[in-house]
Design goal:
Layout: E1 5-8, H1 18-31, E2 35-40, H2 50-63, E3 72-73, H3 78-90, E4 94-97, H4 101-111, H5 138-146, E5 152-155, H6 157-164, E6 168-171, E7 175-178, E8 188-190, H7 198-208, E9 213-217, H8 221-234, E10 240-244, H9 264-269, H10 274-280
The structure holds glutamic acid.
Glutamic acid binds near residues 41, 202 and 220.
Amino acid sequence: MSAPVTRFAPSPTGFLHLGHAHAALFAARAAGPGRFLLRMEDIDRGRCRPEFDAAILEDLAWLGLDWDGPVLRQSARAVAYRAALDRLDALGVLYPCFCTRGEIAAEINRAGAAPHGGPGPGLGDGPLYPGTCRGLSAAERQARMARSEGSALRLDAGKAAGLVGELAFSDRALGATVVAPLLLGDAVLGRKDIETSYHLSVVVDDAAQGISLVTRGADLFPSTHLHAVLQALLGLPTPEYHHHPLIEDGSGARLAKRDHAMTLRTLRESGRSPAQVRAMAGFPD
Ligand code: GLU
């Protein structure tokens, strides 16, 4: 077996903290003699900032990490995402969704307790989309497009499941997992505002970068089910995965981006050495 190609894929929406350091070191170590790549997941123009992008490069270098080749920035990849959406559209597995967040919430309330989907960046742990726009007629779709209401593009997960048949992916920690194609429901693949989404971009770019081993936090495990479906639909290889537990602070609280965990900058300014911070992030030399 050839040496793995891994990646660290931060979103430049803030400074790196210990949880990121853990993920980056994990990916770099997993590459071994293979290649460790860096990708900036900066599709969300409203939240990403060039100063965070620059700070991430600096912090990783300070930590002692050295990535192979140029940094891939998702903000430069719109053409590839468009091509993927076109391909999915040609398969008939996309539909436009005109719902606002408020309308979706109201529909879910009306329907009573709805099944819950797994987490994903920007998705939260909310209930699954109730499918309101899935059944719109072609005429209704056209009329609403013509009134230039913004629309997102959603995956018709049921249809996609029928097309791809039974799928599985392999996780280094958890073994073989049979894909549950409906786990995230009719996920948004093209957002109203940015015409792509985390799920679409990550699948397209892992393939474009030749990533053979995706290492990332266990919080993204549910997303991998959707990613395997998208890989099958798009004719892309499914890499091997290794979902690792998120590191915790001394009190057992998880060090996630959402929490105000210590940033590498703060640690550095308080006099910690790179080796000390690597150890705090779970990788003593
Ligand atoms: N950009 C995602 C994050 O910062 C990571 C995506 C991934 O590793 O697939 O949470």
